C-alpha cells in the first residue's frame, strides 16, 4: 500500500486499515494508511506544564525475556500480535557481534607496543609509601612526557590512535540496539521494568517483581520529604524573624530549647540551630546562629572561604557565614548543607547513657559519683549490648575519610564530638560544625593564624579515639578518667585486638616530636576498607534497580492525567456532548477497556500489568489493535493504539487551545451557537 502518495488524503490515520494491509474503502479511502512515525510522538504532557523531558523517540531498550514482560504479554488476550514481531535471532546475532568485537579488541591490545614497553621497564621500579598509598615509579617517570596526553592531542585522523579507537569500539559495544532492527521490536515494551537482576538477589531477597520501589526506601524518602517541608508555628516561636539575610521560613531544629537561650556544650556560647530556605534558590540549609557575637575583624571570614572549599561526602559543607541583626542582637550565622531528618551520634546512641551524677542528691537511691559506682554503671550499660564490630569499623572509615580531607586541606575539625556527627539515612555519618571555632577564635593580630593547626589536628585524633571508645562501650561514661581501664577491658572482651590497638593509638600521647597522623590510621583499617567499598557499591546497584522500577511511573501518571482531563469532561466550549462524541468516545471506551475490564462471569478483573501495558502502548502509538465495546454492548470497534494515541493528542490539543484562549473568544463562540 502506498502510504506516501495520498495527494488528496487527509492527514489523519485511517481507522479501517487492517493489519493485513487492506482497507475497507480500498483506494478511494481519504485517510492515511501509514503507521505513525515514532518521532511524531509528542511528550505525554506539554513541555511547559511539566519540565521533565519526554521519552526519546528512538528509545530502544529491549527487555523481552523476563517473567514480568511475559506476564504482561499473557495478561492481554487480544494483544498477541507483537509477540510475533520479536525476532529472537537478532539478539543472538548481537551476541556474536559483541564477541567478535571483544576478541578483536583483545588481539589489538595484546600487540600494543605501549604495554610491552611498560612491562620491560618494570625491572627498575622504585616503591614509596606516601600517606598510606604505595606508589611504584621509575626514575624516568618524572621526565617522561605523558604518553596518553600526547595520544589524545594527536588523534586527528591517525589509525594508530589506540585510545580514540577503543572509545569508538566501546561505544559500539555499548549500543546493542543499534545492531537490532528497531522495526522488529514492540516499542511499548521498551519502558517496562525488566525485573530484578540475579546479581542483586542478596539485597532484593524475596522482593517480588514490582513496578514500585521497596517500601522501606519509600517510607524513608517520604519521611525525609515531610521533615524538609515542615514549617514552624508562629504562635510557638513569636520571636522568630520571617527573614534573616536571604533566608526565610526558619524552623528551629532544637525544639527542646523553645525560645530559651541555651549555652552550647561545644562552643560555650548561646547558640541556636534552624532549618531555613534560601530566598534566591529555594534550597534548604541548616543555619547555626551564635547569639550576641560581634565580629571584630572581617579577616576571620577568610577561614569560611577555606572551609567552603572542603567538600566531602562525610562532611557537612559550610556554605557561608554572615552577621545579622535580624534576631534583635548581633549574631553570626553559619549556613551548612541541610540533611532532613538527620540525628546525631549523641541522640542515636549515647544520649541516655550519660546520667548526671549529682554528689549532693537527696535521693538515697540516686547513683553517687565514686569510681566503683561509675565503673559498675559503665559495665551495666555495655552489658545491654554493644554495636557490631563491622558497624563500628564502617563508622571509623567514614570519620577517618572526613578527617583526612579536612587535615589535607590544612584545617582541623576542632569539634569532633558525638553531638557534631550527623547520622543520616542508612547510617551515613557526616561531620558538622566545621569552621565555627576557627571564626570564633580567630586572632587577627597573629602573623600566622595557621600555626596552631597541627596542634588542633592532634586534638582531632584524640577526639576520634574518645568517640570510638564511647561508641564501643555504648556510654559516655567510658570517657571518664576513672573509667578508662574498664572501658579498655570492655573493648578487649567484645572486639578484636585491631580495634583495641586503633583506640590505643588514637588516645596515646605522641612521643617526642613524632606527631600522630590520620594517614597512619589507614593501614590499621586495612582490607576492611574494601568491605566498605563493596557494601557501598552493592547499595548503589540496589538503588539503581529501585530507580528502574519507578522509571516510567511519572510518564504513565502524566498520560493518565491527560486521559482523565479529556474523558467524561462535562463540557468544552459550552458543548456538553463534546466528551461523548468523535475521538473522545473512543477514548472513553478505551478507558473502560483499560480500567474496568471484567471476567466472563462478570467479576472485576484487576491487573496492574494490564493497565501498564495499555498505557505503554498508547504512549508509544503501537500498531496493536484492540476491540472496544460500549457498555450497552451495542457498539464494537476495532482500533489500534496508534489511532487512540492520535485521538488523545487531538482532543488534548483542543482542550489546551480552549484553556489558553482569551475569555472573549469563548463568550463569542457561545453567543454564536445560541
Ligand atoms: N546540617 C544539618 N542538617 C540537618 N539537621 C541538622 C544539621 N545540623 C544539626 N542538625 C540537627 O539539629 C540538631 C541540633 O544541632 P546542634 O549542632 O545545635 O546540636 P546541639 O546538641 O544543640 O549542639 P551544641 O550544644 O553544640 O550547640 C541536631 O540534633 C541535629 O538533629
TrEMBL record:
GO-annotated molecular function: ATP binding; metal ion binding; poly(A) binding; protein kinase activity
A matching Pfam family: zf-CCCH
Chain residues that bind ATP: 288, 337-344, 419-420
Coiled-coil residue spans: 527-565
Location of region: Knob domain: 566-674
Principal cellular location given in the protein's record: cytoplasm
GO cellular component terms given for this protein: P-body; PAN complex
Keyword Glycoprotein: no
SUPFAM superfamilies listed in its UniProt record: CCCH zinc finger (SSF90229), Protein kinase-like (PK-like) (SSF56112)
UniProt keyword terms in alphabetical order: ATP-binding, Coiled coil, Cytoplasm, mRNA processing, Nucleotide-binding
PROSITE patterns: PROTEIN_KINASE_DOM (PS50011), ZF_C3H1 (PS50103)
One GO BP annotation of this record: positive regulation of cytoplasmic mRNA processing body assembly
Localization terms from the record: Cytoplasm, P-body
Task performed by this protein: Regulatory subunit of the poly(A)-nuclease (PAN) deadenylation complex, one of two cytoplasmic mRNA deadenylases involved in general and miRNA-mediated mRNA turnover. PAN specifically shortens poly(A) tails of RNA and the activity is stimulated by poly(A)-binding protein (PABP). PAN deadenylation is followed by rapid degradation of the shortened mRNA tails by the CCR4-NOT complex.
Family classification: Belongs to the protein kinase superfamily. PAN3 family.
Domain notes for this protein: Contains a pseudokinase domain. The protein kinase domain is predicted to be catalytically inactive because some of the residues important for catalytic activity are substituted and it lacks the equivalent of the binding site for a peptide substrate. However, it has retained an ATP-binding site and ATP-binding is required for mRNA degradation, stimulating the activity of the PAN2 nuclease in vitro.
Subunit organization: Homodimer. Forms a heterotrimer with a catalytic subunit PAN2 to form the poly(A)-nuclease (PAN) deadenylation complex. Interacts (via PAM-2 motif) with poly(A)-binding protein (via PABC domain), conferring substrate specificity of the enzyme complex.
Name of the protein in its database record: PAN2-PAN3 deadenylation complex subunit PAN3
Organism name: Daphnia magna
Gene this protein is translated from: PAN3
